[in-house]
Amino acid sequence: MVKRFPTVLIVEDDPRFMKQIAWEICVTFKRQVQILRAMTYKDAVEIIKQGLAEISIIDFQLPDGHGEDLIIMIREQSHNHPIIVQTIIEDKDYQIKMHNKYGHLYYLTKKILFTEIANYLNRAKIDWDNCEGKRLAIPGQNISSLDVNEVCTVMKSPNGLYVELYDFKQEDYRTIEIKNMGLTQFMDLYNTEDLFVRCHNSYIINKRMIKEIYRSDNEILLLYKRSGDHEVRVPMTDRFKKGVLAKVKGLY
Fold first, then answer.
1. What b/e string do you get for 87-110 counting C-beta neighbours within 10 Å, with b at 16 or more?
2. pLDDT tens digit string along 4-35?
3. Which of 61, 107, 141, 197 is most buried by a 10 A CB count?
4. How far is CA 222 from the centre of its chain?
5. Containing domain of residue 63, as a range?
6. Cβ–Cβ < 8 Å for 233, 215
7. Structural contact between residues 34 and 5, judged by C-beta atoms closer than 8 angstroms
């Protein structure tokens, strides 16, 4: 489910800088862009919590907070979200530290802000273009999108769906809840590339995660990538068995 254009968040307390940055964004994206503006740390937090932005330009020195805390919040939602940092700090060691710590981060000092911002915006746009086709847009949720490669299982819950994700960077698992959505709707929206397999009335699996099928007891063994000791057995009912075997043939 690919969006036609990205949403860019500008976090900047100086209205003159805000206006100029917004103009540069419109030119770079040929006006095929939605711009969100936050002039305070508090306003930025509210936008980030809603998962509305897909590219962010963040001023570190804000009157009511620090931009690095905003980056931490964004990284808790996505490791692929392109971020441009603007600051007066020109220390090279500090810049390297920030790159290593947060990834997908472009460091732009105020001194070169308006001579280089177009180049940095183009890089961020390329990053967004490269990852957008691999993401699922989640309407009306706290998280705006998911990386399809991270999805392990989708399980039916009383209020919607539980999605287990594998974070390849952190090498750890997390679960999010998608409210007011059923398994059938999930498959209709997001299985255009035939990545997911319905194996049970209550389960969907990412077929790339399948390690082996236990035909005797109708269970699928998932051995998640980059984690040799984490195995999960997911039930498979007769209703879906034939379809599952056809889709995963030759994958293990």
1. beeeeeeebeebeeebebbbbbeb
2. 578 899 999 999 999 999 999 999 888 888 89
3. 197
4. 23
5. 7-133
6. no
7. yes
Residue of 45, 53, 239 lying closest to 145 (CA atoms): 53
Cα gap 180→140, rounded to integer Å: 9
154 and 90 share one domain: no
Q: Please name the residues in contact with 194: beta carbons below 8 A apart, sequence gap of 6 or more.
A: 247
CATH code where residue 38 lies = 3.40.50.2300
Residue with tokens 């997390």: 174
In this structure, the answer to whether residues 65 and 160 fall within a common structural domain is no
Please check whether residue 186 is in contact with residue 161, taking contact to mean a CB–CB distance below 8 angstroms: yes
CA-nearest of 135, 138, 144, 133 to 181 is 138
- Token pair for 105: 């981060």
**Two tokens at 179?**
């409210």
Transcribe 208-238 into DSSP letters. Answer: GGEEEEETTTTEEEEE-TT-TT-EEEEE--H
How many structural domains compose the chain? 2
The pTM for the full model equals 0.55
Co-location of 13 and 128 in the same domain: yes
Paired strand residues for 219 = 214, 235
End-to-end CA, the chain:
28
The residue count for the chain: 252
Residues 6+ positions from 155 with CB-CB distance below 8 Å: 161, 162, 163, 164, 202, 203, 204
pLDDT tens for residues 200-209? Answer: 999 999 887 7
